[in-house]
Automatic annotation (TrEMBL):
One of its GO terms (molecular function) is porin activity. InterPro entries: Carb-sel_porin_OprB, Cell_Envelope_Struct_Comp, OprB_sf, Por_som-like, SLH_dom. It comes from Anabaenopsis circularis NIES-21. Pfam families: OprB, SLH. Residues 82-146 form the SLH domain. This is S-layer region-like protein. One of its GO terms (cellular component) is membrane. One of its GO terms (biological process) is carbohydrate transport.
Amino acid sequence: MSSIFRSAVWITPILLIASVVTSKKVLANPVESNINIQAESIKLIQSQQTLTAQTEIKPKKNNVLELTLADDNFDTMSQVTSVSQLSDVQPTDWAFQALQSLVERYGCIAGYPNSTYRGSRAMTRYEFAAGLNACLERINELIATSTADAVKKEDLETLQKLQQEFADGLVELRGRIDPLEARTAELEANQFSTTTKLSGDVIVTFGGVYGDEKALTSDAWRTINNTPGGNRAAREATAYRSAGGRDLEDNTILADRVRIILDSSFSGQDRLRVILRANNTLAFNATNQVSGTNMTRLAWDTTLEPDNSIGVAKLFYNFPVGDKLNVTVDAIGGSFFDNFNTVNPLFSAATTGAISRFGRFAPIYRASNSGLAVGRGSGISAIFKLSDAITFSGGYIARNAENPLDGRGLFDGSYGALGQVAFQPNKNLTLAFTYAHSYFSAVDGNGVATGDVNVSGSEGSTFANNPFGTTAIPIATSANHYGIQSSYKLSDKFILSGWVGYTQAIAETNSGRNPVTNAVNRGDKADIWNWAVTLGFPDLGKKGNVGGIIFGQPPKVTSNDYGAQTLTTTSARREDSDTSYHLEALYRYQVNSNISITPGLIVLFNPEHNSNNDTIYVGTIRTTFRF
């Protein structure tokens, strides 16, 4: 806090001085003692570890007094040379002579830019003491410049008495300002950055997967149930052995995910964000041989180095272009669900929303198979606000843009492109129509499998994510995704949301050289469907809490051209036989603005879309710390 601020504080209340010094009518309208006077002229706020004046006050070179209310929308006072310039001051006002004397004799009065004076505003004794000090400085200036004849003797005597009476107030005022100056100087010297804000969050997970046996695919059950001769139990044992064992890995876990977020702005409207992430929340999926299915995955888990190693997981720059267009450039960790409205307001955030991966939003927003959790994704996204009711969104994100090898890079490898039109005719209803196109390469230029194929974003069945390829024979795949998402706020206590999505996956390579015996021929297609309904109950129990129920069908392959032209009862079809249902219930208890605790339960009926599989349960308590 500079000395300018000290002077500005002390010259605030000249109005009351005017009434005492130059008019015998000052006491004609005394203020009742029981009025609660609020010192509005000086309000200090502490924000971002920096003390600033809520209203900036700059003293003029001629020591003109400036009175500023904290809730006024005026920047500075305007100097007046005649009291007639103040539109709300009339000759019949009881303090007219006082104002006239201070304006025309001492040049000590300023009005607001709209030519008003606001003489009825009350002031505190501190303001009066500060104003008195300012008036004395003006008089000393007049004396020093040999204009002492402009100051009458009786005025000096009156001011001397006032100075003595308010000496204690002046000392106390100085005592309050000096510590503020020292504290502000310390904060400015030790602040993290003048352009960057540090924040973050921590998720602590307690829970696990529970049930009897792991889920097997429909092809596995087709083989078990239809192989002629032999022992069915032996065939089952073989299938479970390939899944890593028969029983679910149901040990209770205690894991964490940590994010450190650095937000910088260089114009006040742009944002450069860097996210450092560490995570050891292992995904409950088939790859890790935990449950046999992706349907049990949590919203914040990871398949990338689940050992709490720290790395840059996300980097993007966001900026406006004019009043209607907003652009985001992702360097790493880009994803459509971070850049666009997913139309599931209560459950889309991993920190505070759904506890399941499926329950956050429609799978179409994972069309690029990228994001913070995998540390991949580079591209550009834009949002154009046509009107208050209509918004267009579009983007392109490449999965391996940093890799120059053949079949990789920004335009030669796996990517996703998405376009969306969102309608919001009123504040309660949102309806979005979304289309996305994906391409997932199977191998790079050296013939090494990329592992990029992930049509449904690691949600739903094994076949819904990789409808054509196998570990032995990966198949490049493209996909066209179509989605309708909607959310309606029926009341302040109830929000109904949901989506329906359809994907047509297309094989881009052959599995062999003979189209008759090939399991996959280029152009083969697979149809994949998903849907969900979410019920949200804001402020359930107390303000800030949220209750939720999510019910739906994870992505399911309803038809597939996979397989040779001649099929047997045990032939692989990569097509789901039955229907899985996802039921999720959660309750987020907001301890305070920084801590929330969310117990939740997921029940999966017919996991992997096969009724031969046992029901699987996922129970967890998510504790989120935000700072």
